[in-house]
Amino acid sequence: MSDAVSLMDLCSASEVPEGGSIKVEKDGLILAVFNLGGRFFVTDDACTHGPGSLSEGEIDGEVVECNFHNGAFHIPSGRVEAPPCMVPIRTYAVQVIDGKVCIALAAA
Ligand code: FES
After folding, report:
1. C-beta 80 within 6 A of ligand 1
2. Which residue among 20, 22, 52, 103 is least enclosed by CB atoms within 10 Å?
């Protein structure tokens, strides 16, 4: 039997500018939603290094650079791309359903 998964819708896909990102706060999560050429990705908004907000970072291809100390992360995987960040950011499985960006969450 597979684990139950619930979908949480975050925003309309049209709210996220192409090549950009927005911050979404929902159910205690603070997330960054990215639109990379029409593909959507969701990560935690908080930089793992400090107070940076990744939805306010600079996007270059698939990489977001934190605007605090210029650490960087690969958006699709969350892996660290540049120091001083050491810890990957959490990423979420995304589905776009009826024009809404949704993430899959394991049901409690
Ligand atoms: S807070 Fe993001 S690189 Fe330091």
Report:
1. no
2. 20
